[in-house]
TrEMBL record:
The keyword Transmembrane applies. Keywords: Membrane, Transmembrane, Transmembrane helix. It holds the Pfam family HHH_3. GO terms for cellular component: type II protein secretion system complex. This is Helix-hairpin-helix motif-containing protein. One of its GO terms (biological process) is protein secretion by the type II secretion system.
């Protein structure tokens, strides 16, 4: 009688069946054994100081900062910004924060002033790149810039027809200034020179390694020839 080859594949001997049962038992044990073993908790050490810094940074960069007072209006809490008149050339960093600006923007304004920046009109505040338009629109109406206490050159009224008006500025208030040692404050004492221009002259002098002649001062960017001609007689260079 001819054997069926397919049947031979599905016929197991006693040894084969015993081996299959043993493997099946081992597989079941491996699967259920972890359920009866005690689990170990993974302890993760968290740096609390670092986490606090991260939380602070996230809060400052995701939520707007407002110096505000809270009041109960019609049974609901409302935020009222404390606006006041101020001079952006003299207001402290904390003062800008009280106006509702972020500490980052307030620091940027102070840094701008420390580098010789000066606000001559309220709209100059818009030059601060980190100042949002909404904040600028809100605080600019409260800007009050004090006039600079600078002497001006005016006509004395004693000039003859056809002659240029003679200045009535009290030049005896000016002093001879050595251009290679003059400080920013020394330059600001001259008429027509403010914070920005005084700082620019000092930086220009430093970049050149010192002035070699009085006329080199006139090459400072932003210094007009008319102003230079007025102050030139009071400048000298130490040999």
């Amino acid at each position: 009688m001819k054997k069926n080859p397919l049947k031979e594949w599905f016929v197991f001997s006693r040894r084969d069946r015993n081996a299959a049962f043993i493997l099946l038992g081992l597989l079941v044990i491996i699967i259920i054994l972890p359920c009866f073993l005690p689990s170990k908790k993974l302890n993760i050490h968290v740096n609390t100081a670092l986490q606090a810094e991260l939380d602070k940074y996230r809060q400052e960069n995701t939520q707007p900062f407002y110096a505000a007072s809270y009041a109960d209006t019609a049974g609901a809490d409302s935020i009222q910004l404390k606006l006041f008149y101020f001079d952006p050339n003299t207001l402290s960093e904390d003062g800008f924060v009280r106006l509702g600006l972020s500490p980052k923007t307030a620091h940027t304004i102070i840094n701008y002033r420390s580098k010789g920046g000066h606000f001559r009109k309220p709209e100059d505040l818009r030059k601060i790149y980190s100042l949002a338009k909404a904040d600028a629109d809100r605080i600019i109406p409260y800007v009050r810039i004090a006039p600079e206490n600078k002497p001006t050159i005016t006509s004395s009224g004693n000039s003859q027809p056809g002659e240029k008006p003679k200045p009535s500025y009290a030049f005896n208030q000016l002093k001879k200034t050595e251009i290679n040692s003059a400080s920013v404050e020394d330059w600001k004492a001259f008429p027509g020179i403010g914070d920005v221009l005084a700082n620019r002259i000092v930086k220009f002098r430093t970049s050149m390694g010192g002035f070699k002649s009085v006329d080199q001062v006139a090459k400072t960017y932003g210094l007009s020839d008319s102003v230079f001609q007025v102050i030139k007689p009071y400048l000298y260079i130490k040999e």
